[in-house]
Amino acid sequence: MAVPRAHLYTIDEFEAFIARPEHADRLFELIDGEIVEKVPTEEHSLVVGDIYVSLRLFVDEYDLGRVAFEVRRKMPRDDHNARLPDVEFTSKERLLPVVKRGAVPQMPDLAVEVQSPSDSPKKLLDKAAYYLANGTRMVWLVYPDKRLVEVLTADDRQFFTGDDTLTGGDVLPGFSLPVKNVFRSV
Hints:
With 186 residues, this protein is of the alpha+beta class.
């Protein structure tokens, strides 16, 4: 659901909007100057959780960086976007100090977006293009209804289903996750 407005919101206006008390327990993104509320379903949360746990266990075991979910990210020179990947990984080499207020001023190495009922495939591809254009090295687009994961990098696009196994490629060498485990809880 988008918040209607005659002009594009800036980051400062967005920050003021989300700071309002009535928005305390809600998730919003700023996408090309438009405020968009994220309203995840139980299915969405279960898939996000399965991916997060798999990534977190691997990353922690090998001390590779940081895995998080629903962290607001913005690029320093982009005044009309503040994105919330569903799950993300940032390598140890690129870690910034933990942000305690506001958005992290860089994109993660891996961004994962899980389709919600209101997300069209085009909307997810647009998000992936934004991430990749701003420093993300790999994006996973997860489609629960199709039991499909689309993996995008700057120069490749692959689809994984059924008995296929996702890998971390150059972003997370050695990581693997069977597609069926992405959807194990749903």
